[in-house]
Amino acid sequence: MMKLSTRSAGAISLILAACLQQSPVMAQQLSWHDGNTRHPLWIDPALIADFSGPGSASDQVLRPAAQAVTKSVGSSPVFRDAPDAQAPARALPGGVIVRVSPSLDPALRQAVFTRHGLNEVRELGTASGIWLIATSPGLPALELANRLHESGDFISASPNWWRPRAPKSRAAPHR
After folding, report:
1. Contact assessment for residue 156 and residue 99, using Cβ atoms and an 8 Å cutoff
2. Do 135 and 122 meet the contact criterion of CB atoms below 8 Å apart?
3. Shared-domain flag, residues 69 and 101
4. Domain range enclosing 131
5. How many domains does the chain have?
């Protein structure tokens, strides 16, 4: 058995401590589509987004995953745009936004929605061709958006993303 010097053992301890303090490993890669552009995603295991509160104010949504005793019905994993805890965060409060041709016959549009099992839908705007499809929060919204995108029946299908509000920067006072 090899003996380590006190100096080597101390260095190894410091390296291990530094590794343990870094952000959790984000190995699970998922993706979503914005039109024809595929965007990769990583789940941040250190956080969850809780949309179960009244109004779900932006500053009250993100919580440490360790505080989540059980997965709430109104919760979503927190996703990152890169495998880094500093990458932009996003979560899924529920919903998928689909685009169909505004000139599509309403009966044909309804048949497409029915074929995909889309019951709760509402148009965003008037004659816009953009529809919000109701889903549960979290992964079900991502999975449905990807399935609808891959079907080819829609111009686009994307999750209804929530993103934390960025604080407003303070402008220098005018003199």
Report:
1. yes
2. no
3. no
4. 96-159
5. 2
For 52-80, write each residue's pLDDT tens digit: 876 555 557 888 988 765 566 789 999 99
Looking at 89, 116, 132, the residue that finishes a domain is 89
Query: pLDDT tens-digit profile of 12-31?
Result: 443 333 333 445 566 668 99
Distance CA 56, CA 89 (A): 16
Q: Are residues 78 and 109 in the same domain?
A: no
Q: For residue 170, is it within any domain?
A: no
Reduced to 3 DSSP states, what percent helix, strand and coil does the chain have, rounded to the nearest 5?
25, 25, 45
Please return the burial class of 42, using the count of CB atoms within 10 Å of its CB with bins 0-12, 13-18 and 19+: buried
Reduce the DSSP state of residue 151 to 3 states and report it. Answer: helix
- CA distances in angstroms from 3 to 6, 13, 66, 117, listed in the order given: 9, 15, 38, 65
What's the pTM value of the predicted model, to 2 decimals? 0.76
Q: Which helix (H) or strand (E) holds 173?
A: none
